[in-house]
Amino acid sequence: MRLILILLCLLTLNVSAFEHKEDTVANQKGDKLFIKKKPEGPLMVSSLNAFVDSVSNTIPDSMPFHDWITDDIHQKKFNFGNIQDTMTIVLNDSTDHYTPPVEGRITSEFGKRRWRYHYGTDIDLNTGDTVRSAFNGRVRISTYSKTYGHVVVVRHNNGLETLYAHLSKRKVEVDSILTSGTPVGLGGNTGRSYGSHLHFEVRYYDEAIDTRDLISFESNCTHSDTLAISQCNFIYREELKLMSAIKYHRVRSGNTLGHIARKYGSSVSKLCRLNGISRNSILRIGQRIRVR
Ligand SMILES: [Zn+2]
Hints:
Helix content is 12%, strand content 30%. With 292 residues, it is mainly beta. It binds zinc ion.
């Protein structure tokens, strides 16, 4: 499914996406001249709002992407599906570089996980292993959450954020300035976690992207020194829309297919088709029956 979406996206991606935006000025004769904007260098945290420059036509000015919110892991979402441009983000240069947060086996990839979506990559570790910041940056979140356990979110100078979850111990505080490789905490099994691992997310303006879009975990490096971000990185949201259209019912004592069909305005034959079961199938208490 994902592969099809990506192919679709590549086919429809605006081919001019890699061009710099151009400004026009008039010379003395009044002819219009096109002047290429200089590519921006790596931007500092304090001027992140300037980072949206090349997408300013598609992002409303009022959107507070650059807000420095230190008590909300998930900030306001933005629909990147509307953006036609491609942003080039610097990952490695003379001032910054990627450091693997922890070196270990990948135990779960970004993507659909049964009826939920997994917005990060899980990396195996032992409780107590050092977890490091992937790039230079500043700590936006350092807290305990029911889901993520001890969690740290670092905002990087290039607009990316990385999230490190299920830590046994946090070693940084909000507003700490980090260099790439600085320990953010120790690996663990806190929050909604079954076994010690690092849940590692990469986000761009709070929209998760697949860590593998930029990182080769097998080689412990980034694929390239830059990352081109476009609609393609967010095409998975189409898959999410399809998933949110799907609804399940958890079977309780006494439920029959007839009851469930009536409750959701469906029919027994439709439920059978959706779940690959027959009319005579015995329902177990706690079983999930797809109703939409
Ligand atoms: Zn995870």
